[in-house]
């Protein structure tokens, strides 16, 4: 789960991290009052969406005034006007795709003088199963660009969970970033606080870009992006309360209500599979035979008829889906339950695109018999390769 920048800064502030003073604005008429509560002479107006590259983005609507999602204002009135122009508009960045995201919140923040811009992140390293720090002197840039062109400017190291974090790690970050004097002490304290927040709140990612050094020699978190482990959210009701469902794909949101593992993609063949590994293999073989999957959908090993029905309804609600492939290997999951769910869903929502079903495993004969006697226009497949070829042919033909 992701949260907005202003929420991330409020959380980090509660852990003692230095952030600028700011106000969130939900309605245009509140912008002037919010800006007036902050000290000038410079204000920063930031569109709040769950995507990076806001400053370099552009608004979809031609009448939108500002040409980016992060703008500077030199008066309260200008800050309020920029907020008014952003709210309700669709911001397009390199991470949103061409559809963009609607700006429903704007964050107005006190401006900061910047002497240096740095990069700092904490991530889960899947290879080592440890928390890793990633730091660079090239703050304010996309870290992917830095990694591609000047990888020597990135330092990465992990923390051994047996010994935990020590001040040595903070000093290592400080020296890598070229910090000196009192800045080293500030960095050690910041690293300690960030690591504590990361562990206690079950984060998957904590990115600060940029981390700045002011002309006075102080370090400050100028931007922050936090991501949390969905599987641990039950332990953090305070984090769950920060969820903005308007930022999520409606199909993914609906799937989460039924405990379905669903991720929307941009292909044309909808997939319903049981098991993450089989789902990945299904997506790969669709690609192999010349098409693209429209989603990743794992109904799980013990799905009920109702769960299968909802999964089918979510797939068919995607206007990009031109064909559906159901691929079930029945271990814990029974093939007859899948068959009954498919029939119930088709009768409820209709079937306007080709449907290929491959069943194997527990009660497979009964499952195939149920589908064969249903009267539905379903294409049966014997194995995964056969199923992929048939659905691609049906869509392309």
TrEMBL record:
Mg(2+) binds at residues 209, 223. It catalyses: GTP + succinate + CoA = succinyl-CoA + GDP + phosphate; succinate + ATP + CoA = succinyl-CoA + ADP + phosphate; (S)-malate + ATP + CoA = (S)-malyl-CoA + ADP + phosphate. Pathway: One-carbon metabolism; formaldehyde assimilation via serine pathway; Carbohydrate metabolism; tricarboxylic acid cycle; succinate from succinyl-CoA (ligase route): step 1/1. Pfam families: ATP-grasp_2, Ligase_CoA. HAMAP family: Succ_CoA_beta. One of its GO terms (biological process) is succinyl-CoA metabolic process. It comes from Paenirhodobacter populi. It comes from the Bacteria. This is Succinate--CoA ligase [ADP-forming] subunit beta. ATP binds at residues 46, 53-55, 109, 112, 117. The keyword Ligase applies. Succinyl-CoA synthetase functions in the citric acid cycle (TCA), coupling the hydrolysis of succinyl-CoA to the synthesis of either ATP or GTP and thus represents the only step of substrate-level phosphorylation in the TCA. The beta subunit provides nucleotide specificity of the enzyme and binds the substrate succinate, while the binding sites for coenzyme A and phosphate are found in the alpha subunit. Residues 9-55 form the ATP-grasp domain. Heterotetramer of two alpha and two beta subunits. Its cofactor is Mg(2+). One of its GO terms (cellular component) is succinate-CoA ligase complex. Its EC number is 6.2.1.5. One of its GO terms (molecular function) is succinate-CoA ligase (ADP-forming) activity.
């Amino acid at each position: 789960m992701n949260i907005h920048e202003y929420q991330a800064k409020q959380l980090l502030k509660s852990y003692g991290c230095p952030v600028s003073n700011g106000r969130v604005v939900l309605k245009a008429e509140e912008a002037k009052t919010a800006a007036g509560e902050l000290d000038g002479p410079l204000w920063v107006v930031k569109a709040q969406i769950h995507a990076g590259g806001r400053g370099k983005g552009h608004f979809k609507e031609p009448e939108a005034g500002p040409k980016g999602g992060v703008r500077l204002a030199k008066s309260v009135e200008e800050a309020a006007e920029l907020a008014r122009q952003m709210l309700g508009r669709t911001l397009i960045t390199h991470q949103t795709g061409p559809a963009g995201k609607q700006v429903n919140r704007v964050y107005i923040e006190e401006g900061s003088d910047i002497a240096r811009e740095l990069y700092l992140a904490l991530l889960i390293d899947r290879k080592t199963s440890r928390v890793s720090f990633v730091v660079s002197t090239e703050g304010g840039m996309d870290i992917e660009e830095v990694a591609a062109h000047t990888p020597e400017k990135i330092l990465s190291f992990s923390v051994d969970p047996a010994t935990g974090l020590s001040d040595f790690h903070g000093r290592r970050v400080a020296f890598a970033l070229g910090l000196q004097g009192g800045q080293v002490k500030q960095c050690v304290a910041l690293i300690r606080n960030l690591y504590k927040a990361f562990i206690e709140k079950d984060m998957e990612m904590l990115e600060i870009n940029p981390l700045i050094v002011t002309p006075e020699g102080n370090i400050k978190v100028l931007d922050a992006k936090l991501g949390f482990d969905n599987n641990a959210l039950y332990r953090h009701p305070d984090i769950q309360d920060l969820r903005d469902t308007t930022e999520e794909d409606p199909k993914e949101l609906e799937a989460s209500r039924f405990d379905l593992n669903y991720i929307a993609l941009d292909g044309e063949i909808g997939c319903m599979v049981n098991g993450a590994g089989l789902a990945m293999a299904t997506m790969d073989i669709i690609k192999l035979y010349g098409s693209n999957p429209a989603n990743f959908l794992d109904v799980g090993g013990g799905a009920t008829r109702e769960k299968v029905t909802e999964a089918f309804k979510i797939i068919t609600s995607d206007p990009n889906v031109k064909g559906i492939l159901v691929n079930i290997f029945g271990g814990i999951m029974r093939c007859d339950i899948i068959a009954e769910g498919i029939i119930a869903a088709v009768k409820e929502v209709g079937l306007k695109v080709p449907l290929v079903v491959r069943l194997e495993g527990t009660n497979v004969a009964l499952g195939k018999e149920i589908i064969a006697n249903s009267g539905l226009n379903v294409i049966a497949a014997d194995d995964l390769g056969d199923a992929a070829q048939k659905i691609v042919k049906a869509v392309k033909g």
